[in-house]
Amino acid sequence: MKRKINTRLVGIAVLAIIATVIGITNIFYNLFQKRVRSDLAISAKLLKDTHYFEEVNNEKKEIQEIDLSTDISELRVTWIDTDGTVLYDNDASAELLENHIDRPEIRDAMAYGVGESVRRSDTKNKNTFYYAILLDNNTVLRVATDAQSLWSVFMSATPMTGVIILCIIGICVLLSHVLTKQLLRPIDMMAQKLEDADYEAPYRELEPFSETIRAQHADILSAAKARQDFTANVSHELKTPLTAISGYAELLEGGMVGADQQKHFYQEIQKNADRLLALINDIIRLSELDRTERLPVFEEVDLYETVSECMEALILNAKSRDVKLTFTGESCVVRGNKDMLKELVENLVQNAIRYNNAGGKVTVTVEKNDDVMLIVKDNGIGIPASEQQRIFERFYRVDKSRSKETGGTGLGLAIVKHIVEIHDAKINLDSAPGVGTTITILF
């Protein structure tokens, strides 16, 4: 990042310097051209005011007596007759010069009184400025001077300009390093104090970025802790039935159990094996739900019909625990995954049955108000207010002894929460100890 900032700052400085040099050169060259034209106009008018050429008779002998070569060394003076014939030139022999009637500055002078033009000499890499003025006898007096072209001026200044540019670039490189350090120092400080919620971003523009990073950092830490807790809980939950199975099997293998107790031990091994299998299945299912890269297939599902399909097995489960299960409602269509919705219903109802009392009842209702609602209500042991925020955590149990006795894994409501989130639904909980629990899913 530092290298990129330095490179871009130096690049901007170089471009700015080059653009400045080119711009200033153009500006000063334009001013220089205006000055040259102004000087030529003044020179031409001064020569005209002397009436020197008008007093010379148009005869070859008298014209030859004109000599301005020593008086005006940097100014070329040409005197042109009305037909374009060159009568005199202080830089060359008039007889050798061609007719000037087609020269633009001569034509303009004859037509408008004055004329000017600039012609470039590629061989000398110079521009020649011409200024012509009409005399009172209708002849034309033209003055001219050579000046360097823009490219020539630029090239002549290149060595000094190059030295200046290199010096400025060196200063810019140094300043860019200093500026980059000053810019990044507060950001480095912010990174070091990322966990400090009271630390304010050094720049106002970084406040949203700082808040986002801090929130993501907190989420990552929370996810890491949850994963660590989940691993520890999984290890503990798997260890308990495995230890029991291993212990019972060891006693049976050593012949330390009487014939009358063997059946009980076999039943305990089967019970713990079933619990272990249920636990593994729930862990696998949670892992599948955690994978968000592959979304389930959604379709229009009749929630009432889906719940009805689950009722037969759930009623048998309720009867085995002396709990009355009833189902009421109306046809309601939601968009979702049918298999997941069945899993949702089964986990909610089984949980309501498991944490109920003998002779208790569970009511499942599907109805539509503003939203499609799935309501599972029981009159079981209930959940204390202090525990209600945690019941959807993995392996969390309100009554640990009852959960193990009834075969609960502590993952049922965690699976419910995942399925609810996948369907973009909401879950409401209303519970009180000794009164019962009502869980409402709003689609």
Question: Could you explain how this protein is built, in words?
Answer:
The chain is α+β, with helices and mostly antiparallel strands and 443 residues long. The protein has three domains: 2-153, Beta-Lactamase; 218-290, Signal transduction histidine kinase, dimerisation/phosphotransfer (DHp) domain (Helix Hairpins); 299-442, Histidine kinase-like ATPase, C-terminal domain (Heat Shock Protein 90). The chain has eleven helices and twelve strands. It has helices at 2-49, 52-55, 60-64, 104-112, 150-192, 207-253, 259-290, 303-320, 338-354, 400-405, 412-422, and strands at 76-80, 86-89, 114-121, 126-134, 140-148, 299-302, 324-329, 333-336, 361-368, 372-378, 426-432, 436-442. It has a five-stranded antiparallel β-sheet. It has a five-stranded mixed β-sheet with strand order 7-9-10-12-11, with helices on one face. Strands 6-8 form a two-stranded antiparallel ribbon. The longest helix is centred in the N-terminal third of the chain and has 48 residues, at 2-49.
